Amino acid sequence: MLDQSFVGRTYPPTPAYQVGREKIREFAHAIGLDDPLHFDVEAAKAAGYADVVAPPTFPIVLTMAASRLIIDDPELGMDYSRVVHGDQRFAYARPIVAGDELVCVNTVEDITSRAGHDFLTTRTDVSTTAGEHVVSAWSKLVVRGDH
Amino acid sequence: MLEAGQQLPEQAFAVTRADLVRYAGASGDFNPIHWSERFAVNVGLPGVIAHGMFTMALAARAVAVWAGRADAVVDFGVRFTRPVPVPDTDEGTEVAISGVVRKVEDGRAYIDVTAVCGGEKVLAQARAIVQQPV
């Protein structure tokens, strides 16, 4: 059983992540995208962006790494080998673009237990180093119980 | 412009082991259940399965096509209900994404998304909100 007292706990901001133009292109290519907004700086600028635009699920690159702060917290005691991804949601203030310097703040939103499984819901708020909110991500992780 | 009640055309995507390896590298998710048959079987899976986030990315890709813009999605959430097994063949497997516009409100279209692999729904409560062009 995960410790319910972790609900509401917020972790310190992660070190800044510099969003690279080639990382966006690599990620977009890996999911089969070909829209110029993800690849072509001039096309992105023509659409009003400072640089190439990240695809909607790109924030997972940052938020999954950031949420390891919670998952690997020895006090919480999660067994990561038993974890499966239950739910995922993103709410965007704007798309991430190349050149953004982003920090993640993790909060434990909910911990429940049902049918021998534990459910951990985390929220990761992603903002620029200047404090502009860009996207929030919610992940529900399922810790499978013993069979 | 999307309209309430509109059925959105299905888009089918092939998923191969090579796609999973490429996605692992791009996303940084190197969980061996997505590339090692031995490891996946040992933890009780039918075999190598796709990253849930890869399936979500395909769904978002379909939504962008329906919306007509790569930057239209303002909110997107899914529940991963079933794994997507990816056999070690040239064809791999296929994920089919379809959708319906539940409502349009304040210039935003609310889309219910369905993702099917091998006759089974692999996502539930998959809901995207897209900004309509002005």
Give a short summary of the structure.
The complex is a heterodimer of chains A (147) and B (134). Chain A is of the alpha+beta class and 147 residues long. Chain A has three helices and five strands, in the order E-H-H-H-E-E-E-E.
What is this structure's SSE topology?
The complex is a heterodimer of chains A (147) and B (134).
Chain A: E1 17-18, H1 21-30, H2 41-46, H3 60-71, E2 83-92, E3 101-114, E4 117-128, E5 133-143
Antiparallel strand pairs in A: 1-3, 2-5, 3-4, 4-5
Chain B: E1 7-15, H1 17-27, H2 37-42, H3 52-67, E2 73-80, E3 93-105, E4 108-117, E5 120-121, E6 123-131
Antiparallel strand pairs in B: 1-3, 2-6, 3-4, 4-5, 4-6
Please provide a written account of the structure.
The complex is a heterodimer of chains A (147) and B (134). With 147 residues, chain A is of the alpha+beta class. Chain A has a single domain, classed as Hotdog Thioesterase (Thiol Ester Dehydrase, Chain A, Roll). Chain A has three helices and five strands. A five-stranded antiparallel beta sheet of chain A has the order 1-3-4-5-2, covered by helices on one side. The longest helix of chain A has 12 residues. Chain A is elongated, with a radius of gyration of 17 Å. The two termini of chain A are 15 Å apart. Chain B is α+β, with helices and mostly antiparallel strands. Chain B has a single domain, classed as Roll (Thiol Ester Dehydrase, Chain A). Chain B is 25% helix and 38% strand. In chain B, strands 1, 2, 3, 4, 5 and 6 form a six-stranded antiparallel beta sheet that branches. In chain B, a hairpin with a 2-residue loop joins β3 and β4. Chain B starts with 6 loop residues before the first strand and ends with a strand. The mean pLDDT of chain B is 97. At the A-B interface, α1, α3 and β2 of A face α1, α3 and β2 of B. β2 of chain A pairs antiparallel with β2 of chain B.
